[in-house]
Design a protein that fits this description.
Elements (H helix, E strand, L loop, with lengths): L1 E6 L4 H5 L12 H17 L4 E4 L3 H14 L2 E4 L16 H7 L19 H18 L5 E6 L1 H11 L17 E7 L2 E9 L4 H5 L1
Parallel strand pairs: 1-4, 2-3, 2-4
Antiparallel strand pairs: 1-5, 5-6
Helix pairs in contact: 2-3, 5-6
InterPro entries: His_Pase_superF_clade-1 (IPR013078), His_PPase_superfam (IPR029033), PGM_Phosphatase (IPR050275)
Protein name: Histidine phosphatase family protein
Keywords: Hydrolase
């Protein structure tokens, strides 16, 4: 089976410069264009058999646009939501730095952010949905997962069977696409963070 990991398009939080996480901001006008461009590219080159999506507005809207292009089933699951950043959600980065400064030396992986989740809880949640996908959708040729930067980074760590740590981070740009394959007990990375479809917007 193949896994298409897709990040949502630009959201209003990106423009406002606030902590997003569980804050539920919609796509910007540019984000809508990015999602449509991505969907056209996916339809032409890597059409999925099924789409799984986070329920947060920015991801679900991106997934809906992709579904409009592909026409396959879309399933929304809360397990694919972004990191629960608790008290930081929706705060400007400047305000957050004053009210909730990052602990000196970093926050231990097992300690949750106030009103949120810990890095360990986040990783366990994502590992759980990753293994659920491998079991529940193993008969699907290509599964698209529309989610968020932090969630996708952890999905990639789960795919690579990396231990729990914060040493490695996989970044994903707006509507960035990762293509993975599991075949004959091999885990194959075909590409990471592909964004060539955004050139269509620039040229337009």
């Amino acid at each position: 089976m193949e896994l298409l990991l897709i990040r949502h398009g630009e959201s209003e939080a990106d423009v406002l410069g606030v902590h997003e996480g569980r804050a539920d901001f919609p796509l910007t006008e540019l984000g809508e264009k990015q999602a449509r461009s991505m969907s056209t590219y996916i339809e032409q080159h890597y059409p999925p058999t099924i789409i799984l999506s986070s329920p947060l507005i920015r991801a679900k809207r991106t997934a809906n646009i992709l579904q409009e292009s592909i026409g396959c089933e879309l399933i929304v699951g809360k397990e694919l939501m972004e990191f629960n950043n608790g008290v930081l959600a929706g705060l400007s980065r400047k305000e957050a730095a004053i009210k909730h400064p990052f602990p000196k030396g970093g926050r231990p992986a097992h300690i949750p952010i106030q009103d949120g989740e810990s890095d360990l809880e986040f990783r366990f949640r994502v590992d759980s949905i990753f293994h659920k996908v491998l079991v529940d959708y193993q008969d699907y040729e290509r599964v698209a997962i529309v989610s968020h930067g932090g969630t996708i980074s952890n999905l990639l760590k789960a795919f690579l069977k990396q231990p729990m740590n914060n040493e490695f981070i996989f970044t994903t740009g707006d509507t960035g696409i990762h293509l993975l394959e599991i075949k004959d007990n091999y885990r194959i990375i075909k590409f990471l963070n592909k964004q060539e479809h955004l050139h269509m917007i620039e040229e337009g």
